[in-house]
From TrEMBL, chain A:
Protein name: Chemotaxis protein CheA
Domain of life: Bacteria
Top enzyme category: transferase
EC number(s) reported in the record: 2.7.13.3
This protein's record includes keyword Transferase: yes
Keywords: Transferase
Keyword Transferase assigned: yes
From TrEMBL, chain B:
GO biological-process terms attached to the record: phosphorelay signal transduction system
InterPro entries (UniProt xref): Bact_response_regulator, CheY-like_superfamily, Sig_transdc_resp-reg_receiver
Protein name: Response regulator
Any Pfam family: Response_reg
SMART domains: REC
Keywords: Phosphoprotein
4-aspartylphosphate: modified positions: 54
Response regulatory domain: residues covered: 4-121
Length: 722, 123
């Protein structure tokens, strides 16, 4: 969209990622200051975020982002300088601005158009920013304004201009030029990029005698006749970096003789001597010089002699104490921050590739061990065992690389809770614990939405109104707790609230009303609570703006199950509820349940297996079996996958569950549990129904991993049609 | 031999774009993410001919960084370009006082960076 250059495209991706991180930092800093008051360190962090985004956006030509962040930066700069206060309403404004920039970037990254709602928000925020800046806002100083201010041009107007069509440039480099890291010659070389140096005389007049000469000082001056089509600002621009420390005069082609006179007067060299140099460079003819010198007396009588450098030097003197104070402060800050984190950014795709290879290595190592065992040679068995151990360590290490702190997921929540508490008019605080718990990055991305929904739900429906809390003798401020920890080879994330708890009766009534259960059914607490995950279930008396977003708890459950997690609810009336999400440690290794269909091996994800039964050869209703007085639909996998061969003397039924649905899968022999590495299906096979991925067994055989959700839903819906 | 430029900025995307432009013009580029990193890279590099540094960075800001660089005998005469914004006129002056006499105002286009570098050193 902006550039087709792949290098720039990659840089643009970096920009999007980095901006998201910065906006997150900005938000955290703002929320912190809202709680604990403004502090310079954090204000600067917020400023830096806006500043960096603006700088980079400019590089990519994202003008609209630059324009917006520019206004934001102006306000932040004034807050930083202390001339504008960071009031709560301004924090809210700044937070909205952060959101707005994030949306800008999202839209740009997918190439979406800026719709009306978005533009209206844009206008609203810009107006609010301008208002916050007040009317005293000085017009943004552009570089060009500064340049023209700093260089008063020659202003004498006597008639008669010089013959030459070339520019005349007069340079006296400052004594510190070398120390400033500048090389006079490099400017002259650069000058040649925009024109031709026709004549040049080097002035060595200010060179002191050798004994007094400082080798690090610059004593050089140049008079240059320069032929170019460039305009004055372009030429002046060449000497931009030395204009403060050096004397630069630029006279356009056919300047008035008076202008040359003024130049001669302003420069330190003797007038006659300098005049002759101008003639030798070719900028003045002999006659013109004489004319100029004749004009000299008039100028002297006026007494208009403006030492150019003096003003600038005076300005520098004023700056000195300010500079010192600021530098000392920064020195102190730096000393505090020397302990630096060393981090490496790694491309996610590279990491996936590595993890994939390590997966292969695990399999190869298993095969190696197997052959060594068959071989029986003790040395080989031992060395194979050693390799296997190392490979396992490498696997753990590689998987660990994909892990991030759950803090990265949790960090979005302070803002969500704050904003929503305001919308709801409730006083709710957020507590976060166990944020150091690690989980797979891809899982972190997928768990955020379900968590968000659960937190919103807990705030909206869980936490009671202030009056009710007071009546119950609870603290008026409600509390949402996000907690994470490791547990038995998995991760647990909990959303707790100290609200009213789930209302059993309400859920039961609603479920009956919706036809989810019948009045005869007797259900335990957990079964009742699980009903809220049924599609279309909502107990809120009124669908509120906040949690009634057309997404129910059923979607939460589906999302969690899609990453092979599960969710359960614990609730006590008037004390609160806990939503406990259990996730696997990683998405790349699965606890598989291996079964046989004729000669082929299939893998059923172990977390969906409820129990194993012997296949009943007699069934009351074909296609169903009875399981504890309940009908259980049966699914013959051999039929689904059209596997021929002997029906198998001993068939088994594996009871699997997905969501609310249970199915008995009819398989051959059961081989048991085994950890398997998930290998994605190639493009060619990713449409195969009923199979989500494959794994490679220790003996090198490929075993498909069953897609339980697809199998159950395909099956269940087919039965419904009948 | 190509001249080496050290680019110090906390924005990875800025470093990337500036790097693409400078390398395209024939310079070698070393990147650093803040002042501390910049000093470390200066210490380990064979020779750096020019430094481009942002002002506002975490850990060690550009002005402190420039002061530190100027204290090193071997980099006393190395040109330094400061990246400032128009909102940071004071910072620019502080940077100049510290020894960074050249500057580029953010946001800038890659060719503006090339022009600034071109005034100070050739590839």
């Amino acid at each position: 969209m902006i550039s087709i250059d792949p290098q720039m495209e990659a840089a643009l991706q970096t920009f999007f990622e980095e901006s998201r991180d910065l906006l997150q930092d900005m938000e955290s800093a703002l929320l912190f200051m809202e709680e604990s008051g403004a502090d310079p360190e954090r204000i600067n962090a917020v400023f830096r975020a806006a500043h960096t985004i603006k700088g980079s956006a400019g590089l990519f030509g994202l003008e609209e982002v630059v324009r917006f962040t520019h206004c934001l930066e102006n306000l932040l700069d004034r807050i930083r300088a202390g001339s504008t206060d960071l009031t709560p309403s301004r924090i809210t404004l700044l937070l909205s601005c952060g959101d707005h920039i994030a949306e800008y970037l999202d839209k740009i990254s997918v190439g979406a158009a800026l719709d009306e709602r978005f533009l209206a928000e844009d206008l609203r925020l810009l107006t609010a920013l301008t208002e916050a800046l007040g009317t005293t806002l000085p017009a943004p100083m552009s570089a060009s304004v500064l340049k023209s201010e700093a260089r008063p041009g020659p202003e004498v107007i006597p008639p008669g201009s010089v013959k030459t069509g070339n520019w005349h440039i007069s340079l006296r480099f400052g004594v510190d030029t070398f120390r400033d890291g500048m090389d006079p010659l490099s400017f002259l070389r650069y000058l040649e990029q925009i024109g031709e140096i026709v004549g040049l005389v080097t002035l060595t007049d200010s060179l002191p005698p050798l004994a007094q000469m400082d080798a690090e000082s610059c004593y050089l001056g140049f008079e240059i006749s320069f032929k170019s089509d460039a305009d004055k600002s372009q030429i002046a621009d060449v000497f931009d970096f030395v204009k403060d420390s050096s004397t630069v005069h630029i006279l356009p082609a056919h300047s008035q003789i008076g202008a040359y006179l003024q130049l001669i007067q302003q420069l330190p060299e003797a007038d006659q001597h300098l005049g002759e140099i101008l003639v030798s460079v070719g900028s003045l003819t002999e006659e013109e010089l004489q004319k100029a010198l004749a004009l000299q007396d008039v100028g002297n009588q006026d007494g208009q002699h403006r030492p150019l450098g003096a003003i600038l030097i005076a300005q520098k003197m004023v700056q000195e104490p300010v500079v010192q104070g600021a530098l000392e402060k920064q020195q102190q800050q730096r000393e505090q921050q020397v302990a630096e984190r060393q981090m490496l950014r790694v491309r996610a795709a590279d990491l996936d590739h590595l993890v994939n290879l390590v997966g292969e290595l695990v399999i190869a190592s298993a095969a190696n061990s197997l052959f060594a065992m068959q071989d029986g040679a003790e040395d080989r068995v031992e060395s194979a065992a050693h390799v296997a151990r190392l490979v396992e360590e490498i696997r753990d290490g590689a998987l660990h690389l994909r892990m991030i702190d759950v803090a990265e997921v949790f960090q979005r929540f302070p803002r969500v809770v704050r904003d929503m508490a305001r919308t709801l008019g409730k006083d709710i605080r957020l507590e976060i614990s166990g944020e150091g718990t690690e989980l797979d990055k891809s899982m972190a991305e997928k768990i955020t939405d379900p968590l968000m929904h659960l937190v919103r739900n807990a705030m909206d429906h869980g936490i009671e109104s202030a009056e009710r809390r007071r009546a119950l003798g609870k603290p008026v401020q409600g509390c949402i707790n996000l907690h994470a920890c490791h547990d038995a080879g998995g991760i647990i994330i909990e959303v707790r609230d100290d609200g009213g708890g789930l209302n059993r009766e309400k859920i039961l009534n609603k479920a009956m009303e919706k036809g989810l259960i019948t009045s005869e059914q007797t259900l335990g607490d957990r079964e009742i609570y699980a009903l809220i995950f049924a599609p279309g279930f909502s107990t809120a008396d009124q669908v509120s703006d906040i949690s009634g977003r057309g997404v129910g708890m059923d979607v939460v459950r589906q999302n969690i199950e899609a990453i092979r997690g599960s969710i359960e609810i614990h609730s006590t009336p008037d004390v609160g509820s806990t939503m406990r999400i259990r996730l696997p440690l990683t998405l790349s290794i699965i606890d598989g349940f291996l079964v046989k269909l004729a000669t082929d091996t299939f893998v059923i994800p172990a977390e969906s297996v409820e129990e194993c039964l012997e296949y009943p050869e007699r069934q009351g209703v074909p296609g169903y079996m009875e399981l504890r007085d309940q009908p259980l639909p049966l699914l013959h996998l051999a039929g689904v996958f059209r596997i021929d061969g002997e029906a198998g003397k001993r068939r088994n039924v594996i009871v699997v569950r997905h969501g609310q649905h249970r199915v008995g899968m009819v398989v051959g022999a059961i081989l048991g549990n085994q950890q398997t590495v998930i290998k994605p299906l190639g493009k060619l096979f990713d449409q195969v129904p009923g199979i989500s991925a494959v794994t490679i067994l220790g003996n090198g055989d490929v075993a498909p991993i069953l897609d339980i959700s697809a199998l159950i839903h395909g099956h269940v819906s087919a039965k419904h049609i009948h | 031999m190509a001249k080496t430029i050290l680019v110090v900025d906390d924005s990875a995307s800025l470093r990337q774009v500036v790097g693409i432009a400078l390398k395209g013009a024939g310079y070698e580029v070393i990147e650093a993410c803040d002042g501390v990193d910049g000093l470390a890279k200066l210490g380990s590099a064979a020779k750096v001919h020019l430094i481009v540094s942002d002002v506002n960075m975490p850990n060690m800001d550009g002005i402190t960084f420039v002061k530190e660089v100027k204290r090193k005998a071997e980099y006393k005469f190395t040109p330094i370009i400061m990246l400032t914004t128009e909102a940071e006129e004071e910072k620019k002056l502080q940077g100049q006082a510290a020894g960074a006499k050249a500057w580029v105002v953010k946001p800038f286009q890659p060719q503006q960076m090339l022009a600034a570098v071109g005034k100070l050193i050739l590839p």
